Amino acid sequence: MAAMAPRSFSIPFMFIFFFLVLLLSSITTTSSSNNQTTYIVFMNPSLKPTPIKSHSHWYATDLQSLSIDPSRHLLYSYSSLFPAFAASLLPHHLSLLDAHPSVLLVLPDPLLLPLTTRTPLFLGLPPFSPPVTRSTSSDVIIGVLDTGVWPESPSFSDSGLPPIPSRWRGQCESSVDFPPSLCNRKLIGARSFSRGFHAAATGGESENFSARDQDGHGTHTASTAAGSPALNASLFGYARGTARGMAPLARVAAYKVCWSTGCYGSDILAAMEQALEDGVDVLSLSLGGSSASFSRDPIAVGALAAVARGVFVACSAGNSGPAHSTLTNTAPWITTVGAGTLDRDFPAYATLGNGQRFAGVSLYSGNGMGENAAPVVYGKGFQSKANNNSKLCLSGSLDPAEVKAKVVFCDRGVNARVEKGQVVKDAGGVGMILANTAANGEELIADSHLLPVVALGWEEGDKVRKYATSDSNPTALLTFGGTVVDIRPSPVVAAFSSRGPNTIVQDILKPDLIGPGVNVLAGWSGSIGPTGLEKDGRRSEFNILSGTSMSCPHISGIAALLKSAHPSWSPSAIKSALMTTAYVMDNTGSSLVDADGSIATPLAYGSGYVNPQKALNPGLIYDIKLDDYIAFLCSIEPNLQLIQSITKRSNITCSRKLANLGNLNYPSFSIVFSPKSRKAVKYTRVLTNVGPTGSVYSVEVDRPASVGVKVKPAKLVFRQEGQKLKYTVTFTSKMGKGSEAEMKFGSITWSDGKNQVRSPISYAWSLF
Ligand SMILES: *[C@@H]1O[C@H](CO)[C@@H](O)[C@H](O)[C@H]1NC(C)=O
Ligand SMILES: *[C@@H]1O[C@H](CO)[C@@H](O)[C@H](O)[C@H]1NC(C)=O
Ligand SMILES: *[C@@H]1O[C@H](CO)[C@@H](O)[C@H](O)[C@H]1NC(C)=O
Ligand SMILES: *[C@@H]1O[C@H](CO)[C@@H](O)[C@H](O)[C@H]1NC(C)=O
Ligand SMILES: *[C@@H]1O[C@H](CO)[C@@H](O)[C@H](O)[C@H]1NC(C)=O
């Protein structure tokens, strides 16, 4: 994702207030004051000395042979994941390591920046009724890598849960603010990983190095995946109801990898290795990453090791939409989750002095403005003339003499939305109208501001802005509509949700699917207010957030339900079930739309919006074995030894490669017609019957006029459960020259009259 790195600097600030973390690989690798930099070093497994006491002994011996003192420089020794270590090294160490025969790859420790505590929040509950859980779902363990956990949250009550599965090998690590007694039958593990953070970062002096969540994000994601039902949950009255995770009987193990300055790859890898040893069944990572290749991305290589052990891995797709090619975590063994809305909203209104009323959103929960309108001001800074800082309501920009007792109109952008509210309040304002600019379009984000605030879209906002600047005596009254459900249309793809095409391998369609990621109510940390602002002294056991960080744990929890219903299913089978049963129509019967009302495409929603009930019984699945992923890797990664290292198989020869990367047995299709394959692209897929004996499936093709699609055979008769049948599909381009820029979309659906096994297809015409 080379294009992503420079872009990171120019991302409008609004993006960094979403929850997903951007991994800025080499750029943000931090040197600490002692000039040491952390690296992850991959080792050649075939050069492992035998007999060997331990992997850490091997690495230490090799470091010593280079006169690098392991006691001072070695941070983590990875072994069960794959042979690698993390070390904090001086510049001259690098050339030494590069020349060492055992060293395959030296990767700067990437930093993921958790920007969530300054983040604005959303609200809501899943629109679907969760599947009826079986008792076996209490056997499933979800590992969440995040900012830690608030163990006292009602979402982690273990009332009614049976004893912890005896295979569990994890623990609740003891620390100053996290005695092991805080774990229970729901929260069965809590660990923290901070060596990478310590080695790289200054700061953190005030942090306790425990799994306790000082941020809220980790408590929110963990409780979304598997929180126990919590009655009468709300954010100051908003979205009141029973809050519960997707898999309310599953167990949670929290692995804290994110600290005040971010989450380091070395800590993430250590946590993934520990989680696999502890015995988790599902890993949930609401963290982003961008990298030019899968084999150099710690989350991707860690996830491959997890999938090799039968552990399902869900990751956020990213919050950099609606621009295209903004996805993170696109390795085919990862389930990449985008975000959509729920059918719930929090309306708020600005009634102007001219009688016009504009509708927006808000999570404001105080006493309000009463019944009297107040004057509206825009751009009232300390200079007599309007200036841009005061239009944006940046800190210190508003002149209290101009703003006191007024409603301040603020443009969205640059600083956090909740911070603008704070700035207006500090300057004596009684309310704020927060208006989108062109950059945000009509996407509305509701926040629990400290004063009355109505957030308006671009079009409405523009009208109010004109009124505020042209009327001789502009006034406004802000009022609040509470929680409203049955919003139509819903779901809608969230504007912020990152979009394809997949920039690493365009032949794999990503994201895989979307789930609830807007206005999600879940547990929160007791050490911070819902806005994340220092001045926010309020505390709430629940908070309302938006982001692909919120949709990811929904999928993790639903995957846990599938795992308990079908213990023998591989991670790929679970992913297939989630994808082929996802839906693409909203509650008005129209195709899913984007936040701006235009028809969305699989580049935004992948296979569609998750449907947990249907995923339990998908009829057929597209399974992928580890050997297939290895063949895939062999086709894209030139370094055989590196493949041997990250797959932990020193005997791999890469004798099998995929003629076309899209020929992986994936539950979706991304067809790229290149000048070479201008005429036809042919794929083989294998379906496994997980439904009843004697199921007869026939195929239905939905195709654009510019493509021919031929499926052979067109009918599949499954005589047994578990039977595998093959089909081929040939795509032929009929596109005329010169019109190649546009992408097209379609689908293939296998149906037996009861199950619809649907695969979305994207078509692209590459010029090279
Ligand atoms: C770190 O490197 C800079 C120059 O790159 C040098 O001036 C400084 O003395 C070094 N600090 C330490 C602690 O080695
Ligand atoms: C660290 O833990 C101690 C003991 O629980 C607590 O008093 C203190 O506030 C904690 N520090 C932070 C920064 O949370
Ligand atoms: C629900 O919680 C609110 C406070 O958030 C409280 O006032 C109310 O009494 C509670 N209702 C019930 C039924 O417990
Ligand atoms: C202020 O904003 C306007 C457009 O909104 C822009 O043209 C101008 O350059 C900005 N001025 C400064 C000093 O940033
Ligand atoms: C390669 O090693 C794995 C175990 O690491 C073993 O299961 C497999 O059979 C071996 N394959 C060959 C071709 O030797």
TrEMBL record:
Peptidase S8/S53 domain mapped to chain residues: 138-590
Protein name: Subtilisin-like protease
CDD domains reported in the protein's UniProt record: PA_subtilisin_like, Peptidases_S8_3
Record-stated family: Belongs to the peptidase S8 family.
GO terms of molecular function: serine-type endopeptidase activity
Active site: 146, 217, 549
Region of interest: Disordered: 204-225
Residues of the signal peptide: 1-32
Sorted UniProt keywords: Hydrolase, Protease, Serine protease, Signal
Chain ranges of the PA domain: 374-463
Any one biological process term the GO annotation gives: proteolysis
Pfam families for the chain: fn3_6, Inhibitor_I9, PA, Peptidase_S8
Domain Subtilisin-like protease fibronectin type-III: from-to ranges: 663-762
UniProt domain Inhibitor I9: residue ranges: 38-109
Xref: PANTHER family: PROPROTEIN CONVERTASE SUBTILISIN/KEXIN
SUPFAM superfamilies: Subtilisin-like
